[in-house]
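Why predict the complex rather than its parts? Because the way molecules touch one another can change local conformation, and only a joint prediction can capture that. The input here totals 477 residues.
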Amino acid sequence: MSWVVNFFSSSVGKKVIMSLTGLFLCLFLAVHMSGNFLLLQDDGGLAFNEYTKFMTTFPLVKVVSYITYAFIIFHIVDGIMLALNNRKARPVKYAVSKPSNSWQSRNMALLGIVIFFFLVVHLKSFWFELKFGHVPMDANQNKDLYSIVYEAFSQWWYVALYLVSLIALGLHLSHGFQSAFQSLGLNHSKYTPFIKGFGLLFSIVIPLGFAIQPIFVFLKATGRI
Amino acid sequence: MKLTLKIWRQRNSNDKGKLETYPVDGITTDMSFLEMIDVLNQQLIKDKKDPVAFDHDCREGICGMCSMVINGRPHGPWEGTTTCQLHMRAFKDGDTVVIEPWRAASFPVIKDLVVDRTSFDKIIQAGGYISVNTGNAVDANSLPIDKTNAEDAFDAAACIGCGACVAACPNSSGMLFLGAKVSHLALLPQGEPEREKRVLNMMKTHDDEGFGGCTNTGACEAECPKGISLTNIARLNREYMRAAIGSEEEVR
Ligand code: SF4
Ligand code: FES
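Output of the joint prediction:
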């Protein structure tokens, strides 16, 4: 099995891990974002709580969520290893540099760190509360996560934190999505323009979708809509 | 025209090195960048100072020796041009020009602007060859080769091994060079016998020599004087996966 280890520790192998986990997490983002639109339903959160129950108890979804946790960890650990290795490859920096590549492509690690800290706050507020905290019950005897979300998003600074993190996510995706295909060797004159275009669209739509939810709840909680 | 040059001076590989400022005068627009440094060196020699060491050989854009980062860009401001082919009309009277060597752990500075690119030679040695039978020369065009493949292989073969891709890459990765070298043989029937072994060995040498990994920023492609494209890196990734996962070859 040493060939597997050798493959994944080569610079291409590390990128394969980065791209496969990254693309899986893109899928996760799409699902997570669509589901959360139930927050916009005007039923005091009943549908959202029902959905939460399904997502946290249905066995198949549970398996997928464990895979997601694992992939997030792989993505982070592999990213750290890549970043450290790449740093080591240039011990002396240039006095003057005029980069011809995009800012986000050079700062994927920085953007990743911002997203990581967001993730910690996000998981603490909702995931941790739901699992270990005290959550009231709603009218259908489901855990009322909606009330916790509602409370969190009624604070402007909490919403602001989300919006900043979503910008970081958008930038991360704008490079990461198409980059994942290139890392997997999928660069083709017929498909690459589509992949690039879709990646750009994806990096706008996903953060935008995620941004609508806290903004909507905030406006509702503060009586503006 | 008059210029202010800020040039990296470093006595040897153990010296720390620093940027030194030199004014030069009497530069004409039709001089090449290297001729401009020649002018400076004449002046330094006359003043009994150590002239600036820099690599150069062909001075016609084919040997890949003239490595220097000019105002933050490998081979200077012109696209698809080596330093020796860069002309002084790219600059204005009174400009300040900062000249630095390639910066990479795998390209240690020998002196001033001269770096040691043995690491590239090692990559070539690890797989940049093919098996041919000796004996009578075979008929030209006896091997049918698809036109697109022939063209892509030729484009990849245009790499002159200058190392600007490494110098431009934020990770000092040698993937564009490696991608070009692997592609040019992988696309042709002559490269077939060593196809898997080649990419595995060359990749291993690339990593062992301390180059960084590719993060697809595209800086290499933008700075490559020979227009080597990123598709070669994608092909390299494919070739590597194909060899590592899909062949009997050992992955070291
Ligand atoms: S790929 Fe381009 S920049 Fe890199 S060594 Fe070859 S010619 Fe130079
Ligand atoms: S000196 Fe040969 S390429 Fe510039």
